[in-house]
Write a structure and sequence with these properties.
The chain is of the alpha+beta class. The chain has a single domain, classed as SH3 type barrels (Roll). It has 2 helices and 7 strands. It has helices spanning about 5-10, 100-115; strands at about 15-20, 30-35, 45-55, 70, 75-80, 85, 95. Strands 1, 2, 3, 4, 5, 6 and 7 form a 7-stranded antiparallel sheet that branches. The longest helix has 12 residues, at about 100-115.
């Protein structure tokens, strides 16, 4: 699922890849993490991710920063305000890629950082 840039540069991760939450105790509420880090930033031992919450578990979503997606048949909300970095080693195999949803993802990040 790596992007064209990743394939050229040999990286194994790609922006908008979706990974199972490495914290098994949280998976019923936050089943996935969305990689939002640019494919141009390589060589770091961390990736910037945003939690994807089970849509039924998330209280008071905001349209601008909590867009709704479907991953593996499950409705999930992007909790943009809770983004953070995780070690590469905890991100196993991606289960999906949300590149087709780039615009709502970028809009949420832009709204969070004031670039709208």
């Amino acid at each position: 699922m790596a992007s064209k840039l990743c394939k050229i540069k040999g990286c194994k991760m790609a922006r908008f890849d979706v990974y199972p939450n490495p914290d098994k105790s949280e998976r019923t509420v936050i089943p996935y993490l969305l990689d939002v880090q640019s494919d141009h930033i390589l060589g770091m031992n961390k990736r910037v991710v945003v939690p994807l919450w089970d849509s039924e578990q998330f209280e008071q979503p905001l349209d601008t920063i909590t867009p709704l997606f479907e991953v593996a048949g499950q409705s999930v909300l992007m909790d943009t305000a809770s983004l953070g970095a995780v070690p590469l080693r905890v991100l196993a195999h991606p289960v999906a890629n949300l590149l087709a949803q780039q615009q709502p993802i970028q809009n949420a990040l832009d709204a969070l950082f004031g670039a709208y």
